[in-house]
Amino acid sequence: MNKSDILKYLNDISGEVKELSLRIWNNPETSGNEKESSNLFRNILKSYGFEIKEIDGMENAFIGEYGNGSPVIAVLGEYDALPGLSQTLDIKHNPVKINGPGHGCGHNLLGSAALGSVLAIKKYLEETKTSGTIRFYGCPEEETLVGKVKMIKAGAFEGSDIALSWHPMNANVALDKAYLANNSIKFKFHGISAHASQSPESGRSALDAVELMNVGANYLREHVIDSARIHYTITNAGGAPNIVPKEAESWYFVRAPYRKDVEEITERLFKIAKGAAMMTETTVEYEVLGGCYEKLPNNVLFDLTYKNMVEIGSPSYTEEELKFAKDIQESLDPKLVEAEIKKYIDSDEKVFLHQGVLEKEKASSVVVSGSSDSGDVSWLMPMNLFLTATWPLGVPAHSWQATSSSGSSLGFKGMFYAAEIFSGIMYDLLNDPKLVEAAKDEFNKRTESRKYVSPLK
User: Does residue 330 sit in helix, strand or coil?
Assistant: First the structure.
């Protein structure tokens, strides 16, 4: 059984993988609530002979393992949805449920592609008796950026040699650098309530403190690195306006390309919060809800990923699929669509879907400015990352257009392409121990002077 045989088997089970993806898409569950989704994955893996290992304290996380010996390859799967992004399979905004959840980040595709690939490689290991172990990691709570961080704290990734990851997007590209490191923090201010008109001098407004902190944070933006991001919401603004708010709360995200920058900016933000409390004679307490790292590069896995993307070849599309992509694209700002087309294709022509694979030389210019707890895994072992085109060019993640595309045949084609890439990479790693050692050697050199420290205390 060779690589082409593995890909043929993957095609044979494609119906089951597509059905799983659709079931997840039709029953979106937000971070921390992925009970049915995680059980769907568990049950399929069990039926194929995988051993299921549970993770203490995490009902919706698990490991599905098959094989014996080295290397031990971890394939990362996710399945959580986003609040407020409910959407039918339509070219216009048409939610299934107003303000309901939806797969606007394509995690119904992400987890299903990972699962399809481990089923195909399980078949290969079974038939050839090749030494090696594959692990499917069922990873919840990615959208809140804490799932894998919690799993790491629980020791779930111990014993793995290499991790493989991908993400649905609107281009086919292997990535070396990716993700912004992140901290998620809630600030709770405590004041004194009073009648806002009759005795305002008796009150100390927690809401004033929140607002002053926000002003300070906005001034801080002038004095951090250009690539840093500071964003917030007010999660508790008090009650009736005739009562001086006794309690108020804000929720901040701090992002930057490197974990050390996030930590430095966060310390400055703590000082701003304390200053706001001093100005208003209130008190403040803060809780770091979680945090994550940027992806650590690994050139060996980057090259291997790119090689398989080119060897396997990206999908082709029907006229009906191209029309769907065109109609979705027309719901977007034409300037944003045009900018994205030029980023990937450098063309003045109207292009609806990215086909082919972005050249290695251009991959370094692709910026993934979101955050992911997958970055933390890359600090434990060598990890790759690639994107495939599951949405039309111009579609942003976390949008209704992404939700609709993730339930369409466009999404499924990108998903199967990802499963094929995973399978090809695993085949190469299982049959060439030098690749595994080279990836691990590079990882060890990159982490000689800086080790992973969990953002969770």
Answer: coil
Burial class (CB in 10 A: 0-12, 13-18, 19+), 111: buried
CA distance 267 to 232: 16
- Of 185, 215, 423, the closest CA to residue 289 belongs to 185
Whether 281 and 317 map to the same domain: the answer is: no
The DSSP secondary-structure symbol of 81 reads: B
Bond from prior residue into 140 cis (ω within 30 degrees of 0): no
Q: Are residues 314 and 370 in the same domain?
A: yes
Which helix (H) or strand (E) element contains residue 149?
helix 147-153
Residue 328 phi/psi, 5-degree rounding, is -65, -45
> Which structure tokens are listed for 30?
């937000």
Q: Are 28 and 99 in contact (CB under 8 A)?
A: no
Residues contacting residue 301 through CB under 8 Å, at least 6 positions apart: 162, 382, 383, 384, 425, 439
Contact 415, 112 (CB under 8 A): yes
Strands 162-164 and 72-78: parallel
- Pairing mode of beta strands 247-256, 162-164: unpaired
Q: Which amino acid is at 37?
A: S
Q: Are the C-beta atoms of 388 and 414 separated by less than 8 Å? A: yes
Residue 274, pLDDT above cutoff 90:
yes
pLDDT at 346 > cutoff 80 = no
Q: Which residue matches tokens 């045009």?
A: 338
Q: Please state the domain count of the chain.
A: 2
Determine the residue type at 431. N
**Beta strand pairing call for 166-169 and 386-389:** parallel
282 shares its domain with 423: no
**What average pLDDT does the chain have?**
96
Radius of gyration, alpha carbons of the chain:
23
What are the structure tokens assigned to 229, written together? 């991001």
pLDDT digits (tens, 9 = 90+) for 275-309: 999 999 999 999 999 999 999 999 999 999 999 99
Query: Which region holds residue 309: left if phi is over 0, alpha if psi is between -120 and 50, else beta?
Result: alpha
Residue that is last in its domain, among 292, 322, 338? 292
> How many whole angstroms separate alpha carbon 350 and alpha carbon 341?
8
Confidence of residue 343 (pLDDT cuts 50, 70, 90): confident
Over residues 315-336, the pLDDT tens digits come to: 999 999 999 999 999 999 999 9
The per-residue pLDDT for range 354-412, each reduced to its tens digit, is: 999 999 989 888 888 889 999 999 999 999 999 999 999 999 999 999 999 999 999 99
